[in-house]
Amino acid sequence: MKAAKLAFGLICLAILASNIATMSRWSEARGVYDDICYLRQAHLFQRFGAGGLDTNAVRDDDRYFEGKLKDIAFAEWKDPIRWPCHNPMPGGKVVLQYPPGTGFLLALFPQGHQVVPLYIAASLILCGLALSGIAMARSLPSVLGAGVFGALAVYLMINPAKASYSVAPTMALCAVAGFLTALWLARGKRSVLLIALIGLLLGASVNFRLPNALLAAGYFLFLGIPFLWTRSLATFVQGLAFGAGVLVGMAPTLAAQAINAGSALSTTYGSADLVAPAFDLAVFGQYLRDMQIVLIVLAIGATLSLLWSREGHVQQAAFVVAGNLAVNLGFFLSHPVFTPYYVVPIAMLSLWTLSFARLLQPAEAREAASVRREPASLGALPR
pTM (2 decimals)? Predict the structure, then answer.
């Protein structure tokens, strides 16, 4: 088993090294609108600090964004109304549509060398958790499972994570939140501080992509339904701590919306981006032909498998994931717009949670499960 752990650990490190070598050759001027818009947010943070939350087009007085538009040969670079990723607000301002989190992380690195360090940092977090999972495995099947999943998770930081700068930090947060969720459920006495931290991380993920708000849905169902049934004070406190964590985590986005759109609950997205759910067979077909369907099948299969577990915390992790998958897949698969990364966050959060839930299974529970699966010996057969 030690040889298997070493082999999978080396595989994960080899994929990480290959990813870093590939990432080091990436260009920050690949002609994608989203890229330069995230970089504009980063530039505002570097110029104005917290004042960078205000993304009004008039603040481009140093012509930074105009220069980026010229670099990609955008014809209407002079007219802010025509700028990509920007929308006019009722007050007359033209502002960035994206939440501020991705730009904030990019701003931590020097201008011109921001994207590669962000992706490398996120990849290191994922690889660290993958190696931890391999080290925690206590049987050959669990080593194989942790090793294959860890290698897949690290590889995904190249494709599809490259499709949007917001995906890389989302992937890292989902991995950490998945581990903490399994840890929270594995403890006999569930920590209020730990569930608050999980809520904080999931709330913070909203600062990268607004649809990440759906990642908290399964937790609210898991905590809310038992409270409605039992009216337990402990369950209420857990739910309150989680909700408070989510709210604090997404505070930067609420502040940015208040500054740019006039209200914390008003979106900076234009009406063209607010697409109502409507099932579209063509969009569903795109998911079936995309890498995302593999992740969806893996997440659903692992959830169904663990729902039948007799180990309490493993089964409860599956309940959290099941609720989360139902809400998120129900939304995205009925959303008449397709991208190569829409369901990646929920799939990865689910798989990290289930993987660590199984790995954190107490030794005595593993032994009991092993005994239940073993056939009776000849000596024990009835005569």
Answer: 0.91
